[in-house]
Amino acid sequence: MSRLIVVSNRVNPPADPGLGSTGGLAMALAAALREYSGVWFGWSGETTEHFTGQIRMQRVGGVTIALVDLEEQDRLEYYNGYANKTLWPLFHYRTDLTSYERSFDEGYARVNRRFAETLVPLLEPDDLIWVHDYHLIPMARELRKLGVKNRIGFFLHIPWPARRLLTTLPKHRALVETLFDYDVIGFQTEDNREAFEDYVIHEAHGSVAGPGRLTAFDHTVQVDSFPIGIDAQGFIEAAKSDEATQQFDRMQTSLAGRRMVLGVDRLDYSKGLEERFLAYEQFLIDHPEQQEDVFLLQIATPSRDEVEAYQEIRHRLDGVAGRINGEFATVDWVPIRYVNRGYRRDQLAGIYRAADVALVTPLRDGMNLVAKEFVAAQDPEDPGVLILSRFAGAADQMTDAVLVNPFSREDMSDAIRRALAMPLTKRRMRWERLLEGVKRDDVNAWRDRFVAALRGPPPEAANGDKPEDGHQAVA
Ligand SMILES: O=P(O)(O)OC[C@H]1O[C@H](O[C@H]2O[C@H](CO)[C@@H](O)[C@H](O)[C@H]2O)[C@H](O)[C@@H](O)[C@@H]1O
Ligand SMILES: O=c1ccn([C@@H]2O[C@H](COP(=O)(O)OP(=O)(O)O)[C@@H](O)[C@H]2O)c(=O)[nH]1
After folding, report:
1. Can you give the chain as a three-state secondary structure string?
2. Which transformation does this protein catalyse, written as a reaction (predicted)?
3. Which pick of 66, 119, 329, 346 has the fewest CB atoms within 10 Å?
């Protein structure tokens, strides 16, 4: 059987399946790779003075990982720069935060080339190569230049932006052209896939070559949506572990009979945390009788803290949380418990289970796995209610959540009221349907569907398609 070679910027498998690794991509890939023989290749997170291309192989949590160090300049121009100051804000519809510098562009191209050059000696002819996320869009082009003829797939974990937005990026066409060196391109949602198709047809003068096939730049690729899931069974078990139970008991004690509204996010401006705090304040104003009966626990794990926009949002959140607490707190009640640290997955499971309501209200999000983890961790006898932004990829699947517009304080305030008042029978009915979806569309289903597409059609079916696949001929 072919090996699966997974390539991503972040390689962060938990040594113990119960432990957390911040960010949904790392969590999902660790779970996905445990079932396949193969290698997970990417950046170690470390920098050295000069790039050596030396690989460190390790076996962690049942997964073989291959790590490479980058240079300090790479970290600044590729990770902090093009990935997180250019592509991330733009793809999350924040053109106001998007900065574009030529050095970022050069750093991005350099690291993609370095990744390809370092990976090639590890490859075997039968390997399936699966590249992940916006950090590595041009990776297939670099691999093809080095003569790699293996099947290569790409999965984008974040939203694909609307055509008019993407065209604000200098050299957008050149970036999209590099995607046509893949065999399969996957998006989180149908909406994202449609936005990509719209760009290809109207900006790249491409065409639809057949069901799920797009032609442009003399190449044809398979394009589809593959919504990512969680390791549902693993999470359900984690929620019953000793650590989760201890954390649950600790939360129950600290509730002191109050109801808990919960948020768990990386500290990122795309997660809508400021809007969430303000909507919760609106709820306190709209329902003074409930004030001391409820509190919001917001876990916001620091992220990408060398990027100014992240320093800025952290500063703003400190201010907003402080102001609301100063205004509404009483001697024995604080409306917002605001925590800037990361928790292990099993601890999180216990915290999710103790919550009455989860507020998952990003302004824009590729998927949002916290929404799915919250559902998986609930007590079947007394499940909590999920309030979910319609702008999270997860909203397409989780239609039994209370869907909200995260830009509207009134809408969110009303959703909190309805969620807290929801009778048990209704909570159970909605939760059961949500859980069914979380279990069915789990991380294994996601991986298996993508890998099946990456393997391609059986040889006899593929013959007819060969002439369109220009990249097959690249030496
Ligand atoms: O690696 P970091 O810079 O620390 O950031 C963490 C990850 O954030 C993003 O996650 C996305 O992937 C999730 C799983 O598909 C998805 O649910 C979420 O909506 C996305 O935001 C990023 O795309 C990853 O590359 C980062 O590793
Ligand atoms: O203290 C924390 C906060 C978050 N997470 C994990 O980080 C992931 C966040 O993924 P999501 O898709 O919601 O968003 P992302 O951060 O990838 O944009 C989830 O698996 C969380 O369990 C964690 O392990 N510890």
Report:
1. CCCEEEEEEECCCCCCCCCCCCCHHHHHHHHHHCCCCEEEEEEEEEEECCCCCCEEEEEECCEEEEEEEEEHHHHHHHHHHHHHHHHHHHHCCCHHHCCCCHHHHHHHHHHHHHHHHHHHHHCCCCCEEEEECHHHCCHHHHHHHCCCCCCEEEECCCCCCCHHHHCCCCCHHHHHHHHCCCCEEEECCHHHHHHHHHHHHHCCCCEEEECCEEEECCEEEEEEECCCCCCHHHHHHHCCCHHHHHHHHHHHHHHCCCEEEEEEEECCHHHCHHHHHHHHHHHHHHCHHHHHHEEEEEEEECCCCCCHHHHHHHHHHHHHHHHHHHHHCECCECCEEEECCCCCHHHHHHHHHHCCEEEECCCCECCCHHHHHHHHCCCCCCCCEEEEECCEHHHHCCCCCEEECCCCHHHHHHHHHHHHHCCHHHHHHHHHHHHHHHHHCCHHHHHHHHHHHHHCCCHHHHHCCHHHCHHHHCC
2. D-glucose 6-phosphate + UDP-alpha-D-glucose = alpha,alpha-trehalose 6-phosphate + UDP + H(+)
3. 329
